[in-house]
Known about the structure:
The chain is α/β, with parallel strands linked by helices. Helix content is 30%, strand content 16%. The chain has 10 helices and 12 strands. The protein has helices spanning 15-29, 85-89, 120-125, 136-142, 187-194, 212-221, 237-244, 275-286, 290-302, 309-324; strands spanning 3-7, 33-37, 63-65, 77-80, 102-106, 130-133, 152-154, 176-181, 201-206, 224-226, 248-251, 267-269. The two termini are 17 Å apart.
Amino acid sequence: MTRLYALTPTWKPVGGVIKILDYSRHALDLGYEVILVGPPIEPGIPLFEIERFQPLAPGGSVDHLEPSRFGAEPDDFVFFSWPTDYETLVHRLTPGTVHERVIHIVQNVRHANPSWIGGYALRLLTRPMARIMVAEEVLEACLPWLNRGSPTEVIPEGHDWAYFSRQRQGGLETPAKVGFTTWKSVVGLEVAAALAHDPRFEFRSIGETVGWKELRELYHWADIFLACPNQEEGFYLPGLEALAAGALLVTPDVGGNRAYCRFGENSVLVEYESAPDYVAALIRLAESPPEPVDAMRQAGYGVLSEHTLDEEKRRFGEFLDKLHNLPH
Length: 328
């Protein structure tokens, strides 16, 4: 049985770590021996309360190692996302390991930004290894610097959006409930302050990274979700989760979210970090009749089938088969 070591820098329930565990679960289902490599695990980590990640929890069939304790043999795969984890793994490879046994999942367009991590992520793109891009937009951003001899596959981001699903129809309630998060941007707080005395709106936010249960409660409560992402994103999971919950999505264009955003059709485009633009968008939605509101909501539901975990797993299996067949 071939081993796959999956590295994570943290166990916080953030999108990048979720995707590492998604691929670890895919590998387990595909018949690989999976070893998770990361920091010591404290009891009660929310990640392992998610049903599909329970087989990866400590005490189960998957071993957990701290970075200083793992070492990979030539036939093993090593899977990682956070760029500087490469510094850890490169010293843990047995001599003779081919570069294509190291798989870098590139989850963000900012890998091509020379200012991010001091340019380390961009330089890493030039090194030979296998790569998975989570969206065509990520590949497009990285392509000018990408090592052309390395196996590279675009596997569209899959997600367990059914967990967040809520079916709704019709127009907006009065007051319209507006939800947002603040751990990447405070623009939502500025919008809420600007409309604090407008009886057409009610606001609720989450101020720190939390588990899925709390996020689902926010999406299900909200009629409208304000996306408050970083300026560059590879996918921005909260946007897709909000669409699955039937919330209207108000969002800037941050690169990777174009994978599911059809601006003007299933989401409302606003200028990045512009509170006045968000305010204007909310007022337009509040004044919209039920028909266009529901049409936008239904268009949001319509993109979900393009981002399933089953399809992600199938394509990952094909990519691993391709890497197996490369000469050692």
